[in-house]
Amino acid sequence: MTLNRFANRREAFWRGIRDALGAPVLVLFAGMVGFGAMGHTHGFDAWTMGLTSLLMFALPGQVVMLEMFISGSSLLAIGFAVTLTSTRFVTMVVTLFPQLHRRDRNPLLYVWVHMLAMTAWAVSMREFPAMAPKYRLNYFIGLALPCWLISPIGTVLGYFVAGWVPVAVTLGLVFINPLFFLLTFTDVKPWVNRMAIGLGCVLGPVFYVFDADSSLLLTGLVAGTLAYFIDRQWLRPQPTEVQG
Amino acid sequence: MTVDLQGSGVWLALSAACIGTYICRAAGVKLSGHIHQDSEVFRWLSAVTYAMVAALTVRMILMPLGLLATVPVLLRVLICALSVAVMVSSPQRRLVPALLTGTLLMLAYGVWRTSP
What we know:
The complex is a heterodimer of chains A (244) and B (116). Chain A is mostly helical. Chain A is built from 12 helices and no strands. Chain A has 2 domains: 9-177, no CATH class; 188-237, no CATH class. Chain A has helices spanning 9-20, 23-42, 46-55, 59-70, 75-85, 88-96, 109-112, 118-127, 133-161, 167-185, 191-210, 215-235. Chain A is globular. The longest helix of chain B is centred in the first third of the chain and has 25 residues, at 8-32.
C-alpha cells in the first residue's frame, strides 16, 4: 500500500502545493480571469471584483451575484440565490472532512474550510484514499491555499486585460471552468456517484426551467437520492447470508 | 441601467453573498462532526453532492450566462464531447491535453467568427 507515502506532515503539505500548481491553479486562474473580464464589461470596479473572489471564493455564486445585480434584483433575492448556489458546500464539506484524522477535526477547520472550492474538493476526494488520514489535512491546505490566493489575482488581472485581449481569448478562458468539472467526472469510480452524475445532468436542466434559483439544490436531492436507492436496491453486492 | 454601481448597494449585495456562502461552509464543518465515512448518510450525501455539481456543470455548458451564450449550443456540446474523448483515450487520464483541446477549439472558433 502507498498509505505511508509521506515521511511527515510537512511533506504532505508540499505535495499538496505541487499538485495544486498544475491543472487546479490554472483552471481557477482562468475562471477568475473570465470573471474579472465579465465585471469590467459590466462596469463594476476592480476592488469589488477582487474582494468578491477573496471573501466569497465560489465562482458560480459570484457569477450569479453579478448577473442578478445587473438585472436589478433586490438585495434579499441576491443573498438568497447566492446562498442557494452555495449549498453544495455543505455536502462537499460533509463528504470531505470526515476523512480527516480525528486530531485534525477541531475548530481550526472553520478557517480552512474557507479555502475549499470545487477544484480542491474534486482532487482531494480522488487523492485522500491513497494517503494515511493524519496527512490529509496538510495535503488539503497545501492544495487549497494556492487555489484561493490565485483567485483575487486572476480576477483583478482579468479586469484590467479585458479591454485589450481579443474576444476569442476570453471565450477560451470562460470555457475552462465547465470543461474542467466535466472532465473530472470521468475519474469518479463508485457506481452510485456515477449514476448521481448522470441523473444530475438530465434532471438539472429540467428543474432549471421550473425554478432557476432552487434548481441546483432540488436536482441534487432528487437525483442523488434516486441514485442512492437504485444502488442500494440493485447494484451493491448483497451481504452474504451467514450459513447455519 | 437603473442600478447605481457606485452606491452602497453593491457592497451590501457583496456582504450578503459572502456571509451566505460562508454560512454554508461552516454548516458543513458543524455537520461533518457527526458523520462517519462508512455510514449510509455519507454515501447518500456523496450522491447528492455529485448530482448537484453535475447539474451546475450542465447548466454552465447548456445554459451559460454572458459570452459563452454567443456560441451555438451544438458547438459547445461537440467541443465537450471531443475533450472527453481525449480524456478517456488513456487509462491514466489525460487531463491537461483534454483541457487544452477544449480551450483551443473554443479559441479557434472565436478567431474564425471574428475574422472577416
